[in-house]
Amino acid sequence: MTNSKVFLTGGSGLVGKNILEHSAAGKYEFFAPASSELNLFNFEAVKAYIAKIKPDFVIHAAGRVGGIQANMAYPVEFLLENLDMGRNVVWAARQAGVKKLINLGSSCMYPCNAPAPLKEEMILQGEFEPTNEGYGLAKVAVYKLAAYISKQYPEFSYKTLIPCNLYGRWDKFAPEHSHMIPAVIRKLHLAKVKGEKSVEIWGDGKVRREFMYAGDLADCIHKALTDFGTLPELMNVGIGDDHSINDYYRAVAEVVGYKGVFEHDLTKPVGMVRKLVDISRMKAWGWKPATRLRDGIAASYEFFEAGLAVK
User: What does CATH list as the number for 4-167+212-238+276-290?
Assistant: First the structure.
């Protein structure tokens, strides 16, 4: 469907920016107001905005995000802000009569003790990972609200995508906001510039993570807009493979040109031992990511060096 209107939250964030710069973005009329234009914490304002523009789709990509340090330091904010924004956007869309909505969840929705690969039906089948419990709770609540709306009002189709960990252009590189790969890019870049002979890694570096280039998630979302009818109500989006933290450090070091050694601080928290999502539904739907890890890291580092991101 071309010329459809799309209300996109989080348009200035990692996912939103990649959606807007995707080659297929010109097929749609995107409305992606900045926070100064629309306060997502104000339900009446969100409802009025959606009612005014009358979008064909809503994509909820806004959220407070961060790594282990940020989640542990600000659990109240991660719970309340993500819950409030999600509730406001999803319920305002329902009140305004928008029939199609794509909500972005997170692999933090899965129980910490769930065996990999993480299947969609495992959600709420165990306790959350303590280091990001507030964020996970908020994401599950918003997903459930979307699913309840679809169930109670069958004419509404509100679906949730669960991406694995992301990185890429338009990422946040400051340590208080960043996820692992952008944080490592910044850390190793500065270590190279300063001539530091060693860099610290939290834990033993053996825990495993799955990271996907954000441009690939944007590609999946654009396919979802085109093929919305066949999109599952709940679907993981990932690459189907993972690497150890040590592997990621080595990959970033190769791209950045850092020649030092790594030292491990075994007193630091590391989160879930393994977080790999099952991509069976995604493969059956007919989509797969295209960006190799080294190429994605190189594009992210180029973006960082260009000075376009918060460092």
Answer: 3.40.50.720
